[in-house]
Amino acid sequence: MRAAWRRRRADATGLPRRGAERARVPGPVRGVEPGPGGGVVRFTRSELRIMVAVNGAVFWGWDGVGPEPSYALAGRCPEPDPRAVLEPDKDGGWRVVAERATVVVSRHGAVEVRTPGGVILRRDLPPRWWEPVAGGAARWMQRSEVAADARFFGLGGRAAGPRLRDGQYRLWNTDPGQAFGPGDDPLYLTMPVQMVVADAATHLVFHDTSWDGAVTLREGEEGAGSGHDRAGTCELRMDGGPLRCWVIVGTPARVLHAWASLTGAAALPPAWALGHHHARWGFGSEQEVRRIVAGYQERGLPLDAVHLDIDHYDAHQVFTVDREHFPKLPVLAEELRRDGIRLVSIVDPAVKAEPGNTVYDSGLAEDAFVRDASGRLVRGVVWPGESVYPDFTHARVRNWWGGLYEERLAQGFAGFWHDMNEPTSFTAFGESTLPRSARHSLEGHGGDHREAHNVYALGMARAAYEGLRELAPQERPFLFSRSGWAGMQRYGGSWSGDVATGWPGLRASLSLVMGLGLCGVPYSGPDVGGFDGSPSPELYLRWFQLGAYLPLFRTHASLRAGRREPWEFGDEVLKHARVALGERRRLLPYFMTLAHLARRTGAPYVRPVWWGAPEDRALRDCEDAFLLGDCLLVAPVLDHGADRRAVQLPRGRWYDTVTEEAFEGPGQVLLDAPLSRIPVLARAGAVVPVRGADGGLELEVWAPARGRGGGGLVVPDAGDGWEEPEIERYVTRWEGRDVVVRREGEGGPGEPPYPVRVRGLGSHVTDH
């Protein structure tokens, strides 16, 4: 209660009063100034800067703003495309013609993005601003129109996706304070990034401002009214920040490749992080951790990591250890590591505000904590009680915080999960975060929490990642974060946060992973079983089976929730969970390959089924299945009692990986989904790297259809370190009565260096 009143008082005195406002629009065009990759179009009351980058991305910024500085961009902005030239258009407008898109600016400030063939993908109407008469940040609104057949995806982690229906979506990282389900919004990791998929082309749009805002979407309708199409609309309202935008046009793969070149390559996890993780808030002691690990080992269940929550801290204080219950943590970590199991530590940003607390004292000496408009430390309430918050928008503070992970490494931890970093401060009423008036460095230009809030967790992740690179330079850092922003993939991944236990929560888990992947964050996953409550054996197993095919495969639960160990749900669940764990371990080389491809191409591990055919409308509407890379299609069971399910297939032949029955797409098939497994199909011709019985790498090849070829990519990886292994390319084809597999190289085709197993040879094709 005290924290809530304190926050309200801080904002009452520290925030500028808006008072009267002036509304403005750009007005008519007055002139232009050509420049590299585009130029500047001047209007009566504003100017529009346009630049087409060499990677095909289109940038524009109103009021003359440029693409930098930006928290989203990795390094410097890409070079302008010298072939893109600003030239006159009809009716007094202007246009920039580039290889992948044409940008047309009307004489009143509407901006159209067209395909090279001239089809309009997006039309942004002239923006509107509301500027305080006394000065300060201007609110603005941008309304856009897209094709009637377009579908919206993205906006960060959304429980109601992956396809975003009509409605409003807030852009403000938020701890809901309770377990969430599909109807809850916003959540922990929001981004002003949309992928818009239409018949003509796919495009990604990113509005580069970190301020609070809201996106209102309305899907279009074909043949509405008197036979005319009704365009889809997107209305974006922001409380401040620059009005600047990036648009990338192309196939989904090309779009995310260009997006990754803008915002940075995804961090590469160590191989062990692609295995199975077990976590719980409330292990409570070294003895309990050993008991759980022994349970896995006695039952022959693979386990790669154990996560310790805040209960292993001394009175919940970050970078400490409860010496009574964890007296020999480094010894425990070493014992586990000898068995191939890593320890992962939770890390919260809030620091207990108490003299004698080492982190608090060193932070005061560094002047590291957020202050209010009067220069006083901003205090909130989190798990350790009265707390202060590092300002991660200051390079010096990030450097200090990154050095603190030395204590964690000394305790034997190999990975880190960032929690409560929206940031959260418990309050009895109002928003559970810092006062909006709290002051931040923002890389030296200064500002308040309205601008810093959404990038707070991104700065924390950067601090940890860069600190770990210095402290353990031979190892790839492993971290994932509850909150973040555009560019989060540079430092690690994310997880669902406190997803509710229940069938709706299971469905929301898949939505979050797919949505984040389409925003450029390829590594994520849910709390298997849900964060709260006690799942039924059926729900737990179906969640476990889904998790086995997601990048982050982690069981986790709250202090008051039921158990999450597979043996706690009966012998039948244990038997089927063992199969899922075994399949995950068998597919680890494939997951490692997907991790390398995500780093190099921006393509997520988990992809919507329309990934290779976005023009297929039936696939665009499919939300309950996904592609795992190019080779596998996974159809989880998301409904109680289901033992069969319909699966929408993309074009081509697909094999059931258990029965080896073949199906031809496109179209819908009905597949068995007994409690023992979920349907997983392999693309004909696919080459899947798997772990053989002896632990070595093997190639699992699925026979191509007669008259067609196939292939796949393999990236062998030592498991850690910074070497960039070569991408190996394999092709498959029929030669007479045999399926032949060749490795392609500079010297021509050659024999694969691994054992090869061909599957699907005796299959018959089932019509649908």
UniProtKB/TrEMBL annotation:
GO terms for biological process: carbohydrate metabolic process. Residues 602-688 form the Glycosyl hydrolase family 31 C-terminal domain. Residues 1-33, 743-768 are annotated as: Disordered. It comes from the Bacteria. GO terms for molecular function: carbohydrate binding; hydrolase activity, hydrolyzing O-glycosyl compounds. InterPro entries: Gal_mutarotase_sf_dom, GH, Glyco_hydro_31_AS, Glyco_hydro_31_C, Glyco_hydro_31_N_dom, Glyco_hydro_31_TIM, Glyco_hydro_b. Keywords: Glycosidase, Hydrolase. Residues 69-213 form the Glycoside hydrolase family 31 N-terminal domain. The keyword Transmembrane helix does not apply. It comes from Streptomyces albiflavescens. This is Glycosyl hydrolase. Belongs to the glycosyl hydrolase 31 family. Residues 267-594 form the Glycoside hydrolase family 31 TIM barrel domain.
